[in-house]
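Q: Please design a sequence for this.
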């Protein structure tokens, strides 16, 4: 039977069907009716395991509802730290971030990695060649920077992420665009130069946008968190169900 994987992030929900550790079709939802969205997927085909990784706690009522639409419910949120800790992932990391590290470790076994998640936040995590977690950083994501600049500087407009960047800027708008995009590029470049031997992986909503602007060799895995969730779910099935 297939499993349903759900990743609840800060601004959107991603879901995918998986057979074993192989991902199928991925769908994205951005709205307030998250539970209804998940149910609409599970109602079409009862999954063996519904695995949910979330940046927020799922209430007991939400969990009880989801259990009606699967044979087994696997939840990884701040209230369920045991699953990721068994993979050597510290419990202070968000669970979508932890799932991405499980995937990176699986994909690049035997290689040290620098994993960038470019979304609402910009996170940078390090794995050594043995797969051990070596720490990471959290910064402000691209769109969040544009919004913050507008919110805290009354004279500056809210600017959209540009397709092309003028460097240096020659107007208020292009200066904002260049300042934020170039700043993130310099930030990424500094991390890469600090560990030049590492495999570099980009994931998150802005992964492709920034990968296109990099001169370095980059692996872009947009659904890294879902892939990690598929791996975790497949191992859970093998250990506890089959």
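A: Design:
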């Amino acid at each position: 039977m297939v499993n349903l994987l759900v990743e609840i992030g800060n601004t959107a929900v991603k879901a995918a069907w998986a057979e074993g550790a192989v991902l199928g079709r991925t769908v994205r939802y951005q709205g307030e009716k998250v539970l209804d969205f998940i149910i609409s997927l599970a109602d079409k085909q009862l999954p063996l395991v519904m695995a949910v990784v979330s940046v927020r706690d799922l209430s007991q009522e939400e969990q009880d509802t989801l259990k009606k639409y699967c044979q087994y419910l696997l939840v990884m949120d701040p209230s369920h730290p045991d699953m990721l800790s068994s993979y050597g992932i510290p419990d202070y990391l968000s669970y979508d971030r932890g799932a991405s590290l499980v995937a990176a470790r699986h994909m690049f076994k035997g290689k040290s990695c620098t994993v960038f998640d470019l979304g609402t936040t910009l996170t940078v995590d390090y794995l050594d060649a043995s797969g051990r977690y070596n720490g990471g950083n959290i910064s402000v994501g691209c769109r969040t920077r544009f919004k913050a600049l507008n919110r805290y500087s009354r004279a500056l407009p809210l600017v959209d992420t540009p397709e092309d960047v003028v460097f240096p800027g020659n107007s208020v708008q292009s200066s904002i665009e260049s300042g934020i995009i170039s700043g993130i590029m310099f930030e990424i470049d500094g991390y890469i130069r600090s560990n030049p031997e590492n495999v570099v992986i980009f994931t998150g909503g802005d992964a492709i946008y920034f990968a296109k602007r990099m001169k370095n060799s980059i692996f872009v895995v947009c659904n890294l968190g879902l892939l990690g969730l598929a791996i975790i779910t497949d191992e859970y099935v093998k250990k506890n169900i089959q």
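Q: Thanks. Anything notable?
A: Residues 172-194 form the longest helix (23 residues). The two ends are 11 Å apart (CA to CA).
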